[in-house]
Design a protein that fits this description.
alpha/beta, Rossmann fold, four-stranded mixed β-sheet, 33% helix, 20% strand, globular
């Protein structure tokens, strides 16, 4: 097993760690992977995409947790973080590579250099129907609604049919909406800043993608339009009130599987029972009692 301590030390020493939250990278990575492996069983046959990998906290902690996938790919739009991963992580983790992808984001644009990056079209062609599993931590919490849909479409195109994608977000449901409007959420979503028929909450009008939340039905609609379905949800504590395990809500989507011929689907057999012809069977007796009590 590779000695991971020097990699974490490089992360701690890098100013790029502040770009992705500033907390201890090993603790954050371990916490993320604990959530991921609880929701998605991963193993040696897995082909995994870390979407929005940053400086690689999740990838390194995945290796630390003993997961040795067949393939592990990290993608990000920020050239410096991909350079960091290529230099400090790729040489030490087997079957691991990194891709610099095109993209723009108002919250992260100040970290994006004018460099040649692979288009989503090129990456889709390279990885179409490839990954068994994918994950994205703190990516969809910083996307506009339009980009939310585009990125779901993009990830879905790279998943094999039946593949799974876990991403974190802030989901507006009955409880979280109530807590936000009551000023109880621990993230500063402003109850006065509701958009798109109150389906979107933001935190700061000067940096609207710092934190952004979407309505539960809107999220499911976008997931379905991307050819996936929400199959599991683990709520985070961001909404306050003692809810949740992690910080953000973790949504697991499954790409629609290839359909079998109807005749090949093994149905659950029904138990055959002969009709009960007894004149005094329980149902008949009950009807007699009811008629007696009601006088009918």
């Amino acid at each position: 097993m590779a000695d991971l301590a020097p990699i974490y030390d490089e992360m701690r020493a890098s100013p790029m760690n502040d770009w992705v939250g500033g907390s201890d990278p090993e603790l954050v990575g371990d916490a993320c992977i604990a959530i991921l492996t609880r929701l998605l069983p991963l193993g040696g046959q897995s082909r995994i995409l870390d979407f929005g990998c940053g400086i690689g906290r999740g990838l390194v902690s995945l290796h630390k947790a003993g997961v040795r996938p067949q393939q592990l790919v990290g993608m990000d739009i920020m050239p410096p973080v991909i350079d960091f991963c290529d230099q400090h992580i790729a040489p030490h983790l087997p079957n691991t590579r990194f891709e610099l992808m095109e993209g723009a984001n108002d919250h992260y644009d100040r970290f994006i250099e004018q460099r040649e990056r692979k288009t989503t079209t090129a990456l889709t062609e390279a990885y179409r129907d490839n990954f068994t599993d994918a994950y994205a931590f703190s990516v969809f919490t910083h996307l506009t609604q339009a980009d939310f849909q585009l990125m779901l479409n993009f990830v879905s195109s790279m998943l094999k049919p039946g593949g799974r994608f876990m991403f974190t977000c802030f989901e507006l449901n009955e409880f979280s909406r109530h807590m936000v409007l009551a000023g109880q959420a621990i993230f500063p979503l402003d109850r006065q800043r509701m958009y798109e028929a109150d389906d979107v909450f933001i935190a700061n009008p000067d940096d609207p993608l710092a934190f952004i939340a979407f309505d539960i039905d809107l999220i499911r609609q976008m997931v379905w339009q991307a050819g996936m379905a929400v199959t599991k949800v683990s709520y985070g504590c961001w909404m306050g009130g003692g809810m949740g395990d992690g910080l953000q809500d973790a949504i697991v989507c499954t790409k629609l599987p290839a359909l079998k011929a109807v005749d090949d689907v093994k149905m659950t057999p029904l138990v055959h029972r002969e009709p009960d012809a007894r004149p005094d069977k329980p149902a008949s007796s009950l009807k007699k009692l009811l008629r007696h009590w009601t006088g009918r």
